[in-house]
Amino acid sequence: MSTLTSAQKKIVAGSFLGWSLDGYDIVLMLLVVPSISQLFFPSENPVFSILATFATYTVTLVMRPLGAAVFGIYGDKFGRKKAMIITIMGFSITTFSIGLLPTYTLVGVMAPVLLISVRLIQGIFAGGEWGSGAVITMESVPKQKRGVLSGFLQSGFSFGFLLASIAFQIVTLIFIGDSFNEWGWRVLFFTGLAPGFVALFVRLRMDESMLWEEKNKAKQLERSPLRKTVLGKQHRRAFLLCAAIMTGMVYMYHGSIGILPTFVQQFGSFQRSDVASIMIAATLASWLGMIFTGWLSQRIGRKKAMIIFAGVAVGVVIPMAIGILGGGMAAFLFVIIYAFVVSTASGPVPAFFSERFPTEIRNSAAGFSYNAGLIFGSWSPLIALTLMSLVERSFAPIVLGLNIIIGAVIVIVPTLLSPETKEYELN
């Protein structure tokens, strides 16, 4: 970072903060699923309530491809910076709004309807965030820095998850017992405005991508960037491979870190305060792991770094999941290894995807490829929870591990079919 110019640092900071806020806002729902499930989806069967509440998390992810398409096109036509300002405002406000929602006891079936509606809108804004932030960063930094800054940028989601876990820890200490179910969870969602204002302030002061500016001045912008990406023969293969890679990445991440709070509470003997500590350890390991895989990709290549981590995950995920449920201090060591290995293969992705497409379609192509992986990959937590509820509790870690291994295999195959891009020049 010390070798970057002031303008480049602002772009990196603005992109990182936005992706961190994405992580912070989106995953707050994961942390409160066991606590608020009966408030919006009351049922005599607690598993049904939890699955229904988890579905509200999933619908946010499923809507992200639409947001990626809308804001990707906007970013290619009118600039990455403008798109980033709109998205940061949009999903900050929707996160705050969740804390205002009435529960089932007040408005009946309208409570889950309102919750799902707000989460759908939030998903659209969140879907436009990654593409604009990733491409403006990769377009603005030197080639020899793209790998490590790719990992740094991608780690923003885990950093946001880390901040959310810390906020969850603080709120659970303030709102003890039933008071958390009454007011604590609302306060947690209200806090989403604070990082949003910080990110907006930074983005208003950063520059537009010079590569995009050059294309704009030369009137070389693409009129239909998304159509050219998906339907055009020149970039269709790259799009499909990137989307397949992200399907596996999302399947692994949300099937490992995303499900962890519910996994340790429903299938282990951990209390709410323990869950907060576990998630702080997990998200810290994931944050540092993504920076490491990004750095590694600058040394050995994007493909090798991603394949190595996905491959190691296949071997360690089941014993680590079993160890986590064992409890005690050893559980934290297993959580750290689990998160560092299983959730961090995506570190090189911002660079890898940006290097696959030209400037005139990069925002649409990279952003939609990334978020297209959510269409199928985001169902991983629901699939895992459903399968784990059908087996004896002792088999839950094995089912969780097998589900993650499916995601790892999905990552490895299209990555092997993709070209190495470390030495590509952006044009």
Q: Average pLDDT, to the nearest integer?
A: 88
Query: How big a fraction of the residues is strand?
Result: under 5%
The structural class is: mainly alpha
Secondary-structure element string: HHHHHHHHHHHHHHHHHHHHH
CATH class: Mainly Alpha
Oligomer: single chain
Distance between the ends: 23 Å
Count of discrete alpha- or pi-helical segments spanning 4 or more residues: 21
When the domains are counted, the total is 1
CATH architecture: Up-down Bundle
CATH topology: Growth Hormone, Chain: A
* Uncertain spans: none
CATH homologous superfamily descriptor: MFS general substrate transporter like domains
Main beta sheet: none
Give Rg in angstroms: 20 Å
Characteristics:
427 residues, mainly alpha, Growth Hormone, Chain: A, 21 helices, 80% helix, globular
Spell out the blueprint of helices and strands.
Elements: H1 6-40, H2 46-78, H3 80-98, H4 104-107, H5 110-140, H6 146-154, H7 156-174, H8 178-190, H9 193-205, H10 210-217, H11 225-230, H12 233-256, H13 260-266, H14 272-300, H15 302-325, H16 330-342, H17 349-354, H18 359-372, H19 374-377, H20 380-389, H21 396-416
Helix pairs in contact: 1-2, 1-3, 1-5, 1-6, 1-7, 1-8, 1-9, 1-13, 2-3, 2-5, 2-18, 2-20, 3-5, 3-9, 5-6, 5-18, 6-14, 7-8, 7-14, 12-18, 12-21, 13-14, 14-15, 14-16, 15-16, 15-21, 20-21
